[in-house]
Amino acid sequence: MGNFVARNKPDWDELERLVAKAKKKLRRMTPEELSRLDVLYRRTTVHLAQVATRTTDMHLLAYLNALAAAAHSLIYLPPRKSVWAGAASFLFEGFVRLVARNWKFHAASAALLMGGALLGYFASMHDPLAAYALMMPGDTRTPGATPEQLLDVLHSGRDGGRGGKFVFASFLFSHNLKVGLIAMALGVLAGVPTIILVLYNGMMLGAFVAIHHRAGIVAEVWAWILPHGIPELGAIILFGGVGLMFAQAVVSPGRMTRSAALKRAGVVASQTCLGSGAMLVLAAIVESYLRQSHLSTEARLAFAGGMAALFLMLGLYGVLRERMATAGSAAAPRETG
After folding, report:
1. pTM of the model
2. 107 in a domain, yes or no?
3. Which end of the chain has fewer CB atoms surrounding its CB within 10 Å, N or C?
4. Is residue 96 part of a domain?
């Protein structure tokens, strides 16, 4: 056995060095090193089998077993992703494909929000009393406010400290998340509360815009709304879309049982919550720090345009990736009996 160890130890030492290097940075290894790692691993497994049957040296057996296991994990197991890499992979691949897969529900939710916004806008432009009815009680932004008063509210908070803005961002995130979760969860009640909630949020938005338009404040109010409104309203639309999925599972589960349909919708809901929650975090940060900054109206609108383009590209990418996956599944050969 002494000759066996002396003859093969150089291979084991070389394999140890390659395993140590691969554990630090597998991507930096050359093709030659990777090929050598594979060759030495297979050779070491043979040595391990020989040692296991020809000797009672437990130390040598444990050493070769650990060495072979370490090399095996590098060759056959997928590389581990960091938490951040996994989150990015979900947001830019899994989440956008999930949204594309259920686009009909989200499109219906978007139609409800936009329909409510148009209804609230035109109703408030026609009759100021409608705006009073739609706006939250105690809100100073009413049809009776002067343009100066409305602008003061739009410009408020710009000189606040970072601590106050952080607290405000936390409040906005928790509030918007609660609204989104309620809109989603209430879908189990045949979708009626979800429809009303999404529609009402759109009507409040429309009334808010109408109040400022009547006062001649157009560009400034859109520069105030859009930077944070694009991710925030987008998240609310997605929550509402999942709520409509719950509604379908209850009202028309198809060939599935209601419990099975609700379970499937629940899986989609949990994944959608993760992505929509990230959108709400972004919205809260933008609303607290960018909206309450001294950036010009033009810069705010440019930022909003960039964010809209980003989300549009992500949506198109999700549709493309989902279609490619669907086409690949349909083109895969099926086994015949």
Report:
1. 0.75
2. yes
3. C
4. yes
